[in-house]
Design a protein that fits this description.
The complex is a heterodimer of chains A (about 500) and B (about 260). Chain A is mostly helical and about 500 residues long. Chain A folds into three domains: about 45 residues, no CATH class; about 290 residues, no CATH class; about 100 residues, Cytochrome Bc1 Complex, Chain D, domain 2 (Orthogonal Bundle). Chain A is built from 22 helices and two strands. In chain A, a hairpin with a 5-residue loop joins strand 1 and strand 2. The relative contact order of chain A is 0.11. The longest helix of chain B is centred in the first third of the chain and has 32 residues. Chain B folds into two domains: about 120 residues; about 120 residues, Immunoglobulin-like (Sandwich), CATH 2.60.40. Chain B starts with a helix and ends with a helix. Chain B is built from five helices and 14 strands. Classes of the chains: A mainly alpha (about 500), B alpha+beta (about 260). The interface between A and B is medium-sized, with 22 and 28 residues. The structure holds copper (II) ion. The site of copper (II) ion (CU) has 7 residues of chain B, from loops.
């Protein structure tokens, strides 16, 4: 019986089912005791460690190159540990999401994101009730977008275009201007409709609440990724031998008591959800300030990472509490608050109401002909759509551009995209092989941001963030609508029933 | 040692379980350890065109069930009867290469059943795949025109309704992802297509199933007699996201249709 309880205690936290099976099997077996030991070893080996967010190794590699370090040399390992520890303390783990809160329960971050929703989206997939399951993100999204939201899930390499990497904080299809994040409604629209012409399917069959949960989690992942990128960039700015947080030698932030790790930040226990993840983070939250609870929190951390050197190392660390708190406050203000403020902007944002002119889709309208003619003039002239979308609108203009997610390392580092040897190290570091971004074929009726006139209007007005499609700063609304009408009247050739391109009446002679 | 009884019992499990599970699924009552037997069978049919399909489905199942029961029971009996019983030596096995009469029997009976089914279902096939429903328009009988276009793609269903011009397949079509709305109580014709690979457009609750092939346009028709929500599935393995190809069909009372589409 003692042995059974031991197995239970050893394994129950991490894999309650495996422990139960091991104990039952042990009871039934004739040679009980030996079998229990054997089984517990087998089960312990087979158990997966708790999930961790992966490092942004691409950003690390990029910054190392930008710092002009010798080839093959990187930043000292402590920096990676610091960034990983700080993001972990601030944002938690894939099983127990957290938010960095400077103002506790009054923090504006809690207006933007709901801890209960994050807890519902996070963690492994287990059933929550008859209708829904816990771990919605890993169930529906992670296999393409990755657990970290890096767009590098197992299926991502097979898709064209690649799945979105949320960590740059850029989103394409939204009702807000370039440079501002999408509203929650924008993200939800994408979930409901999918993105036609890409591998992003429609999640219309999910419950409305589940969609809200996923929207919150995507924003959370995006914030986390942005902050991580800023912290990595901050490492490059450091003086030699300096660290992001003032700790001696190779001491790790994660080995310190939780209140020291958090510094000026606070944690708020998530509400709702009953997963193991919630229990973990609730325990963490309780432990702020209490020494006994601190020890427990520390022990929890150790379970997941054997390389830390165990609890013995921790006791030796001498550190300056106030200095660490100062460092963390500085980092939070410099690297985290700008990200949060950017996202908080969406709470007040209201998309400008636009009336769709009646003539846009109605060829019988008196204004139609002249508007289409105006649109054509703009297409080839002032708006210069022709440069990328081509003379006939099939998207055969300039086709050697790259999107911002690729240019983030490709262009910044001045790499020749046709030189595979030059970009191979970046691909090894976690980038997808670069692919040029193709201008849209305007004659398929497939528009990724939606094919209603208002959708096309928005794309022309605000551009498509992260792509060469620019915002139209000089066009009037009237002119944009003329362009919408022109684009909409181009010959229609669906993919499922292709026709040979009809000669356009208004086509210019091809030189 | 395992006796002839054990082996015969093992063989007897085939007809017992095979037919037993079938009966449990059809009856749909009871549960084992929290697993309910309800809903194992097809949902109740709501499509009057498909009553005949259900009838054929049942007929084929009964024929197959009888054949399964008889043949596997004989097998179990033979194992029991001719094995080594305690105190009785089994006769040596015979090696028979030909038996003309037997071969005639096991060729002719299935052939006769097949030919019978082939003729018996002709009208059902014609009603569901060839004779499009007709309506009276201005005193003339006309085939019902497709009210929506459903395009299967990896991985989802695009539904197009005619736009302001009232014509399907033009640029002003209204697109909705993964949701189809149809009126109840009158024949509905849909145009079904595929964008990339083979898919199969299926509504189990209406017994509708049509493979869709890229480059081919096909029509399916049905009538929904019960308002409500029905499941649309892809029933042709079409890639890694095949399981994601679920959509919803809403059957609404006449008049509400336009509202719902907005
Ligand atoms: Cu399919």
């Amino acid at each position: 019986m003692l042995k059974h309880s031991l197995v239970w205690w050893l394994l129950g936290e991490r894999c309650p089912w495996s422990a139960r099976v091991a104990v039952l099997a042990g009871r039934w077996a004739v040679c009980g005791r030996d079998l229990v030991c054997l089984l517990s070893v087998v089960v312990a080996v087979g158990c997966t460690p708790p999930a961790e967010f992966g490092d942004n190794s691409l950003e690390w590699y990029k910054q190392e190159r930008a710092a002009r370090l010798e080839p093959g040399q990187g930043f000292p390992e402590v920096h990676r540990q610091d960034v990983s520890d700080i993001t972990r303390v601030w944002f938690g783990t894939p099983d127990a999401p957290q938010l960095p809160l400077l103002e506790g329960e009054d923090d504006p971050a809690l207006e933007l994101l709901d801890m209960g929703k994050l807890a519902w989206a996070a963690g492994p997939v287990v059933s929550r009730n008859e209708e829904s399951s816990q771990g919605l993100y890993r169930r529906h999204c992670a296999h393409c977008h990755g657990v970290t939201g890096d767009g590098r899930g197992p299926t991502s390499a097979f898709l064209s275009p690649y799945p979105r990497d949320f960590r740059l904080g850029k989103f394409k299809f939204k009702s807000s201007p370039t440079g501002t994040p999408p509203t929650k409604d924008d993200l939800k629209t994408i979930l409901v409709n999918g993105i036609p012409g890409t591998s992003m399917p429609s999640f219309r069959l999910l419950q409305d609440e589940e969609l809200d949960v996923l929207v919150d989690y995507v924003i959370y992942l995006s914030q986390r990724g942005m902050v991580e990128r800023f912290l990595i960039a901050a490492v490059r700015e450091l003086d030699e031998d300096a660290r992001l947080v003032s700790l001696p030698d190779a001491a790790r932030l994660r080995d310190l008591p939780l209140d020291v790790q958090l510094g000026p930040l606070q944690r708020v226990a998530p509400v709702g959800g009953e997963s193991a993840a919630d229990r973990d983070s609730a325990a963490d939250a309780d432990s702020v300030g209490g020494s006994e609870a601190d020890a427990k929190a520390g022990a929890d951390e150790d379970d997941g990472s054997e390389s830390d050197g165990g609890s013995g190392a921790k006791a030796d660390v001498s550190y300056d509490r106030d200095k660490i708190a100062d460092d963390l406050l500085f980092l939070a203000e410099e690297q985290m608050l700008p990200v949060l403020e950017k996202w908080l902007g969406i709470l007040d944002f209201e998309a400008k109401e636009v009336d769709v002119p009646a003539w846009v889709l109605d060829s019988r309208d008196a204004a139609y002909e002249s508007q289409v003619a105006l649109g054509q003039k703009l297409y080839f002239g002032a708006a210069n759509c022709v440069q990328c979308h081509g003379e006939t609108g099939i998207g055969d203009g300039q086709t050697n551009n790259y999107d911002d997610w690729t240019n983030d390392w490709l262009k910044v580092e001045g790499i020749n995209p046709t030189d595979a040897a030059a970009w191979a190290p970046y691909v090894n570091a976690g980038a997808h092989p670069p692919r040029p971004i193709m201008p849209r074929n305007l004659r398929l009726g497939v528009y990724r941001g939606g094919n209603r006139p208002i959708d096309i209007f928005r794309r022309i007005q605000y551009g498509i963030e992260g792509t060469p499609m620019p915002a139209s700063l000089t066009l009037t609304e009237e002119q944009i609508w003329a362009l919408v009408a022109y684009v909409q009247q181009l010959p229609y050739e669906t993919l499922s029933r292709p026709e040979t391109a009809k000669k356009l009446e208004n086509e210019r002679p091809v030189r | 040692m395992l006796t002839h009884r054990f082996w015969a019992g093992l063989f007897a499990l085939v007809p017992i379980l095979g037919i037993g599970l079938y009966v449990i699924a059809v009856l749909g009552v009871g549960s084992v350890g929290g697993f309910s037997f309800a809903g194992l069978w097809l949902p109740e049919n709501a499509n009057p065109y498909a009553n005949a399909i259900d009838h054929l489905f049942d007929l084929v199942h009964i024929i197959c069930g009888v054949v399964l029961g008889v043949t596997t029971s004989i097998l179990a009996y033979v194992v029991w009867r001719y094995a080594d019983h305690p105190g009785r030596q089994a006769e040596p096995a015979l090696y028979i290469t030909h038996h003309t009469l037997l071969e005639w029997i096991w060729t002719a009976i299935p052939a006769a059943i097949l030919v019978f089914l082939g003729f018996y279902q002709l009208q059902v096939w014609a009603d569901n795949k060839m004779n499009r429903p007709m309506v009276m328009v201005e005193g003339q009988e006309r085939a019902v025109e497709p009210s929506a276009l459903v395009v299967g793609k990896q991985f989802g269903w695009e539904v197009y309704y005619p736009g302001p011009d009232g014509v399907l397949g033009t640029l002003d079509d209204q697109r909705v992802e993964n949701e189809l709305t149809v009126p109840v109580g009158r024949p509905v014709v849909l145009r079904v297509e595929a964008k990339d690979v083979l898919h199969s457009f299926a509504i189990p609750g209406l017994r509708v199933k049509q493979d869709v092939v890229p480059g081919m346009t096909q029509l399916v028709w049905f009538q929904v007699d019960r308002p409500g929500t029905y499941e649309i599935l892809c029933m042709e393995l079409c890639g890694w996201g095949h399981y994601k190809m679920r959509a919803r069909m809403k059957a609404v009372a006449e008049g509400l249709e336009a509202e719902v589409q907005e």
